[in-house]
């Protein structure tokens, strides 16, 4: 997995979210110790889904130092921020691939489709963060699920023609997994809220 660096704006946003008190509710049982919140969360999510990668979850969230001293709300935001960073970087990769002159017409059409999917995914992630921050968890879940679907659609577009290999397999996998991390945490929080 490529290392992801957050912009100063994103880091300030994370800091704001992480120091803002969370609503008083029964999440405390899930957050007995923030020391291992990342491990507990990744383990729980991996137990709930066969598509979820525990190792990916741990390695992704642990790249952000704040994940070691946050709560579930903070982890969900970190996951969505990482997904946003991935989608932004993937758009740059797609633009480079489109201009490289190394792909046939079929692959170029698929790359343009992926560019559109990833451009839409950025807007969708931002909308998902906004819904999450206003505690509209069901809306946030729909938005994050749509981002996961975008990564899958991009990958499957290349597979429609025999022998064509997607040049974005790693990026699609990463976006899917980062979104899945956020989706799982949002789902956990939504269960606690009701």
UniProtKB/TrEMBL annotation:
SMART domains: PMEI (SM00856). SUPFAM superfamilies: Plant invertase/pectin methylesterase inhibitor (SSF101148). It holds the Pfam family PMEI. Residues 1-26 form the signal peptide. One of its GO terms (cellular component) is extracellular region. InterPro entries: Invertase/methylesterase_inhib, Pectinesterase_inhib_dom, Pla_a_1-like. The keyword Plastid does not apply. This is Pectinesterase inhibitor domain-containing protein. Residues 33-185 form the Pectinesterase inhibitor domain. It comes from the Eukaryota.
């Amino acid at each position: 997995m490529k290392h992801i660096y957050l912009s100063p704006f994103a880091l300030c946003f994370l800091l704001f979210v992480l120091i803002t008190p969370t609503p008083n509710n029964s999440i405390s049982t899930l957050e007995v110790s923030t020391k291992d919140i990342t491990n507990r969360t990744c383990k729980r999510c991996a137990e709930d889904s066969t598509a979820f990668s525990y190792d990916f979850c741990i390695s992704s969230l642990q790249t952000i130092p704040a994940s070691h001293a946050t709560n579930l709300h903070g982890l969900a935001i970190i996951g969505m921020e990482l997904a946003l960073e991935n989608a932004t970087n993937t758009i740059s990769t797609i633009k480079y691939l489109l201009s490289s002159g190394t792909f046939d017409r079929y692959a170029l059409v698929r790359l343009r489709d992926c560019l559109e999917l990833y451009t839409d995914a950025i807007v969708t992630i931002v909308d998902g963060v906004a819904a999450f921050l206003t505690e509209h968890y069901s809306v946030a879940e729909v938005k994050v699920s749509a981002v996961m679907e975008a990564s899958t659609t991009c990958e499957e577009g290349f597979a429609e023609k025999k022998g064509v290999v997607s040049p974005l397999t790693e990026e699609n996998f990463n976006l899917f997994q980062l979104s899945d991390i956020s989706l799982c945490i949002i789902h956990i929080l939504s269960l606690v809220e009701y």
